[in-house]
Amino acid sequence: MSAYRPEFEAALRLFARASEAMKARGFPAPILVGGGAVELYSNSAVTTGDFDIVTPRQEEFEGELKQLGFTKPVGLGHTPLGWVHPELRLGFEIVSATVLNGMADRDRLVLIDLGEDGEVAIISVEDMIADRMGQYASGTAPEMLEQARQLFILHGDADLDYMDRRIRHESGGDYGVADLKA
Questions:
Q1: What is the pLDDT of residue 80?
Q2: Structural domain span for residue 52
Q3: Helix (H) and strand (E) counts for the chain?
Q4: How many domains would you assign to the chain?
Q5: From 99's CA, which of 28, 31, 120, 142 has a CA 20 to 30 Å away?
Q6: HEC secondary structure over 112-135
Q7: What is the bridge-based pairing of β-strands 91-96 and 50-54?
Q8: Which segments in the chain show pLDDT lower than 50?
Q9: What per-residue string of b and e applies to 112-127 under the rule 16 or more CB within 10 Å gives b?
């Protein structure tokens, strides 16, 4: 994992440990989405300040984060939803109970083995690109087009048919794979 910045790799390993603890308790593995997934898929070319997590068991996952030394900052300037590890300065936030409101194909989740720390589940690159294109299409996040294009360039082996369907869904039909090539 040497291609990643050290704090990102350390956060990913903590996520793996929390994921393993969840699975040991019989709960589904939480899934990394958002900026953390973009950083992973871009080998830290695009960096993030937080890990967005999907899990239907928020309370239990937050308990695992506490066990790993995460705290929930309070006061002005802090999101009430995020958890921070004091050594990393990267936030963890539970953003949903399902990946992309249930529209992502769960069979496409990517599992990464981090050795003794365990395994992490990550949204597919196709769904991550579609998510970025949906955010771009909303008009609230123009920078997401560049992130989607960077991921597209880095992942030439992606399933273009699936990605096109997902982009069209996330963008309300306004965009498709062709818009990533411009």
A1: 57
A2: 6-123
A3: 6, 6
A4: 2
A5: 142
A6: EECHHHCEEEECCHHHHHHHHHHH
A7: parallel
A8: none
A9: eebeebbebbbbbbbb
